[in-house]
Each structure stands twice: as C-alpha cells, then as structure tokens.
Amino acid sequence: MEDFVVSARKYRPATFDTVVGQAHITDTLKNAIKNNHLAQAFLFCGPRGVGKTTCARILAKTINCQNRSENIEACNQCDSCTSFNSGQSLNVYELDAASNNSVDDIRALVDQVRYAPQHGKYKVYIIDEVHMLSAGAFNAFLKTLEEPPKHAIFILATTEKHKIIPTILSRCQIFDFNRIQIHDIANHLAYIAKSENVTAEPEALHIIAQKADGALRDACSIFDQIVSFAGNTVTYKAVIDNLNILDYDYYFNVTDAVLNANIPESLLIFNDILNNGFDGHNFIDGISGHFRNLLVGKDTQTIDLLEVSPNIKEKYKAQSVKCSVPFLIKALTILNKADTQYKSAKNQRLLVELSLMQLCSLNMQMSEAEKKNDTREQKLVETAKPAVSSSQSAQPSNTSTQNVVPVAEKTNITQTNTTPLKKAILKTSSPSISQIISTEKKTENSPSTSTTANSTSNQPENSFTQEQLENTWLAYANNQKAKGKINLFSILTAEKPLLIDDKKIEYNTNSKTSEEVLIEEKLDLIGYLRHELKNFSVQLTYNVIENNDKKNLYTATDKYKHFLEKNPNINKLRQAFDLDVEF
Ligand SMILES: [Zn+2]
C-alpha cells in the first residue's frame, strides 16, 4: 500500500513535456523562458489536481537549471536540478495559503524575498490556494508584488480565480489550467501501470479517469487504491466493485427494455440495482448520462464528446441507432424531472419506477404519434384540393437535405409544413445535433422565400381565387379542430381570409391574444396554404382590428334594435303579443 501511495507522486511529471493535458500552458512558459520574457508574477488558475503546483515546480527548476536543453527542459542532472528533485533546493519557497494566511505569514515571506539566491539565478515563491489569504495579508503582499526584486518570481495558484482581488490580478500573468481529458488521464494511468508491471484493462482505467473528474492526482490515488485491493491485475469488474460504480451493462439493458416497452423487465433490472446496494438517485443520474451519451453518439460530429473507452463507444453507437432523437430528448426530460423531484419524494423507489414506466410507454406513444402524423399528412392532402395535392405528396422525401430524424423526414414534403412535433425537436435539440440546426436555420429564413427542399426552379406559383382560399382555409381550420385545437379553430373561423392581390392574404382578428395564437401557428398555416394552393409566393399578414364600432348592448332598447336588425320578424312577434320595449 505504502509503495503505491508513493507511486502517485513517483509519476509526477518532472519536465514540461510530461505534464498531462496542459500543452497550451507549458508551451507558453517554454517560449517565455526561451525568449527571456519571463513575467515576475504568475497566477495559475484551475480545478484541483490538474497540475498547477507541478507546473510551478517545473518552471522553478527549469529557470534555475545550469544545463537547460535546447527544448527548454531541465536537465535533471545538474546540482540545481538534483537539489530541486530531492526537495532540498533553497531557491523554491512554497507557502500553503490555506493554512498560512495571516499577515505575519506573508511578512515572513516578504522579508525573505529581499535576499538574492546564493546559487542559481532565481528564487521562486509558490503560494498555493492564494485566494485564502486574509485581506490584510493581501495588502501586505501587494507592495512586493508590485516591485519585486529581479531575482524573485511569484507563482500564485488558486482554484477560485473570482476570489482574487483585481489589484493582484492586474499584476499577474494569468494561466487557466484545463480539467484534464478523460482519455489523457487514462493514457497516463496506462503508462504508470506499464511501468509498475500492472496489467490493466482499458475500460478499468477509463472508469477511474471518469471518477476522478478531470483531476490527475485523484485518478492516481484511485489507481493506487485499486492496485492495493486487487493486486497486479486491474480489471473493469474490480474497479466498479471497488468504486461502487454501476456497471454500464445495467444501463444498456434498461435502455433495451425501455425501447422494447418492456415495463416488467425494466422494473426487475432496477430491483437488481437496488439489491446491489445502489440508490435510486444514483441510478437516475447514471441513466440520464447514458441517454445523453446515446444522443451524442448519434452524430459523427458529436461522437467525440463520448469520453469512454473504444469498446464501450462501439456499444453506444450500436444502441443509439435504435433510438430516435425525439425519443432521447423526451426521455431526458422525464429523467430530469425525476432528478429534481427525487429529494422531496416520499416514496423514492416508486418515483424511479414511475419514471421507468413513463420511459417504456414513451416509445409506444411516439411510434403511434409518428403513425398519426403520417395519416394526418395523408388526410390533409385528401381533404383539400385533390388535383393540387396528390402529386406533391407523392414526391419522395429523400430528395431533400440529409436529416437524421425520422420524424423530420416525414414532414419534409415542404420544409415549412412544420408539425408541432418537429418544432419541438427543433427547439430542444439544437445544441447537439448539427443537421437539425441546419434544418432549423432553413426554416427560420424561409417564410417569405423559397421553402421546399427541392430546387427553387420547380416551385409552382399558381393563381387562385378568393373562394379557393376560403375553402383551403376552412380545411386547415377543420384539421385543427380534429386535433383538438378548438380555440385555434374558432379564431380561424371568426372571419374570412382576404385575398388582397394574387398572393397576399390578410386575416383580421379582433384581439391581440387571438393574434398571438395565430402567430404561433403561422409557419404551419402558411406552409399548408402554399402547399394546397400550389403557390409558394403566398404571403400572410394578420391585422388586429379592435371593434370600436361594435357598441356594447346595455339597454333593452339597444338589444331590441340589435335583434331587429338581424331578424325583422321580431317586430311582428312584438306586435302579435302586444309587447312593449322598456325605454
Ligand atoms: Zn539541470
């Protein structure tokens, strides 16, 4: 065990080139040394365990090395280097500000700064966790930082850059360290394993790297821990057992069950997970990550965001083919909801089970919805002008741009004929799926210009009559009614659309609220009109006409007059019964 605790430190990089995953920083530092443009104060920012102190030490060693290589690396052989490597150099002074944050601590340091080094050129002061310094200590330090002696170099390191006061920030050259990529960590672990004669499965090292969350130091100590537990063979199984991590296989199996709408199977797997000592929240978290990976794995452009070993990556690829993007997005939404509700839920197991059932029925619903969409499209085509539509609907959808989404393909007869489902996809999935983004852009730009995915040349611009317009409009309204959008139906049928010239259509509505409802539907409506009227230059504008002339009928006389206008027979009725209208 002891041996291995040391091993984490043993493989601490000793040269710039061996620092893992921070090339942007080491290259800059090397260049500065080479060109003699070294700043006197540095601020190294970044998460813990990513190499800030290591880089500071390498910098200190390299600038004092008596026999620096052409590649600006320390020789690790000269007196200066050996004293550095054995931790006995007087030219480096490290202060941990987390525990030494008083004014006195800083004064002691500042006093030292005045003395030039006895050997070597520079004295390097490394102040770790510098954000922990008290305000007084910061002030005591400021003067020295402002006018440091030529031989002094300060390297301040912090995990919390935002806590550093501006007067310090402005005096430092700032370097931002990255979280280390998982495959970089895994590679470094593989290197350590090889040097230590430990056989390690790549999946095992990837899991360790993932668990370390970008911190190399943590990854090394987890690795040591596993080796001390499992001996010289580090297997995937040993790692997940030891780190209490849920096996990937569980997620792949649950997803298969969900895709097959197999509720009992999914519940049994979850039961198994609980029996293995994992809690429900853990599972929700993991399965969300799994669906995210499937989403990312669907697209060649985003597949690199999958930070897993090559074997697992192939598994993700294979399973992602079986999931549609809308399915994954809806699944993630369900899981996200479960995640936020988990803490406050009284019966947490039931919450997870319910979510699983929702996931299972999701795929069923979706496939039915997709079917419905198909038939809806067919119906639209049938109910409206038959001559116009049949040829359009027969167009094969594969003439259009590449689309990854099955649903999107189905709505591709015209790009503007946007179904609500597709709109939802466009709205929610844009960050990850590039193809959809391109479709979305097209849709955004399209209302007034050409909209088919086909070439612009064969777009019809047939003329149509007011009557044809009214019929088409009504057909659309009826369709909305059939879909249960009663409010939209009544707004659409309150007035008649007006054909202003051969392609401009105006529709008057009597309130802002109605107009808002119409605007929501505009793309869909305009697409329908263009398609059915076979005129792709059709433009649609809404006007809000507040009915000022429509007087409110307060008195009985008003009401009587109003009804009389509508039906003159009312007067006969009144006379026949000898009725009076109150005046
Ligand atoms: Zn040296």
Q: In words, what does this structure look like?
A:
- This protein has 583 residues and is α/β, with parallel strands linked by helices.
- It is elongated, with a radius of gyration of 36 Å.
- The chain is built from 26 helices and 10 strands.
- The strands form 3 sheets. The chain has a 5-stranded parallel β-sheet, covered by helices on one side.
- It has 4 domains: 22-176, P-loop containing nucleotide triphosphate hydrolases (Rossmann fold), CATH 3.40.50; 182-243, Helicase, Ruva Protein, domain 3 (Orthogonal Bundle); 248-365, Up-down Bundle (Zinc Finger, Delta Prime, domain 3); 466-544.
- Residues 1-5 and 380-457 have low confidence and may be disordered.
- Helix 12 (248-259) runs antiparallel to helix 13.
- The chain is 56% helix and 8% strand.
- Helix 24 links the parallel strand 9 (504-509) and strand 10 (539-544).
- Bound molecules: zinc ion.
- Zinc ion binds next to helix 4.
Looking at this protein, list some descriptive labels.
Zinc Finger, Delta Prime, domain 3; Rossmann fold; 5-stranded parallel β-sheet; binds zinc ion; alpha/beta; elongated; 583 residues; Helicase, Ruva Protein, domain 3; 3-stranded mixed β-sheet; disordered N terminus
